[in-house]
Amino acid sequence: MAPTKKTDRKAVVDVAAWTFNVVTSVGVIIVNKALMATYGFSYATTLTGLHFATTTLMTAVLRWLGYIQPSHLPLSELLKFILFANFSIVGMNVSLMWNSVGFYQIAKLSMIPVSCFLEVVMDKIRYSRDTKLSIVVVLLGVGVCTVTDVSVNTKGFIAAFIAVWSTSLQQYYVLHLQRRYNLSSFNLLGHTAPAQAGTLLLLGPFLDYWLTNKRVDAYSYNLASVMFIILSCTIAVGTNLSQFICIGRFTAVSFQVLGHMKTIFVLIMGFIFFGREGLNLHVVLGMIIAVAGMIWYGRASSKPGGKERRSLSLPTSRQQNHGSFSDSNEDEGKV
Prior knowledge:
11 helices; mainly alpha; about 0% strand
């Protein structure tokens, strides 16, 4: 009876974590679209820095209230994480500027096989045939939804290459640090958010000027745009936290595969709120294929042998008490 209750509780928490991530991720994208399209605030890197500054404030308040317990993360590990994370953010922005939308989407899709490669090499993960095929179906479906014109140039390819690998390494490192140093999502975010906020707010205005030829300090702020910036930062706190929670519970590959549900929601919400592009037949077909692949992946990877670790090299037990804001990772041995 006890194992059944534990499994049911895990399933409930898993669904809640995914729902939290999908809602906040789609929400922040829609708000940012409105902020940039309607109010002309096109300073994406600076805005991301403000997101992490708000997240830093939240973790500081929770630490002061005693909900986040003291923890340790070596400086060398923190610097590596910040390097991967910031290259991911900058690389994605530059890739979008230098590449066609089609090639940009293909680059984003390639993060799944790269994440698989990292898990196979670093964690000795083994995938079953059904799990591999389900990933291919997801890639095909999302590709049909999003990939249109595809043109490649040298500097755009380099930017996309850096963006894909840095993003995959950053997401892999989230789980690696949580397991190796027994950190909850709140603890890890408390270590990384201040460093990311500082570096992005320092470099963001210069990078945004390079990308847009506009200065963030020269932007004409008004009450409506400031309210949208505050709303974006508030929702982004949930996005940042839920990403760490989901990767900590599922691994980076599962986060990437099932995370493409957000791509589908963004397409639908963009049609509802902005109405710029209709949901034509090939987009709807792509959505159906992608959702079918996600369902198949969930079933295939959860079966015995669907996705398993050949040898466990990282510690998986939690020894610290992280207060009432722990991640409830009862299944740290999962892959």
